[in-house]
Design the sequence.
């Protein structure tokens, strides 16, 4: 079992920045691929960014490429999402997720942190 706790959300003006953190506990953090998802009101949850165990491979949704950066510190059991040039359409609840390398779906989820971008 892996427990995930997100932090760092808040209210920011368009063009501003936020850094989300996700602290993991319970199992060997480096064994898991990590990702960020988000869900806006009335919309389905969508993938934002993912990172492999070493941090050497990352992926991003087209909507955030060039603005968001995912990273991880295995020694601290933490994954980050640096969000720059924020837009009102980035407003959502952001969730951290983890899965074993052999799993198809993300198995563990945090409780989410709200990000609100005002225009």
Sequence:
């Amino acid at each position: 079992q892996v427990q995930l706790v997100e932090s760092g959300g808040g209210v920011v003006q368009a063009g501003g920045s936020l850094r989300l953190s996700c602290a993991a506990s319970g199992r060997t953090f480096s064994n898991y691929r990590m990702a960020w998802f988000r869900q806006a009101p009335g919309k389905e949850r969508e993938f934002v960014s993912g990172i492999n165990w070493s941090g050497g491979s990352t992926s991003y949704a087209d909507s955030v490429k060039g603005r968001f950066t995912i990273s991880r510190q295995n020694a601290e059991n933490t994954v980050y999402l640096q969000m720059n040039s924020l837009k009102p359409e980035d407003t959502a609840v952001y969730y951290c997720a983890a899965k074993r390398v052999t799993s198809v779906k993300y198995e563990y989820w945090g409780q989410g942190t709200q990000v609100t971008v005002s225009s």
The chain has no helices and eleven strands.
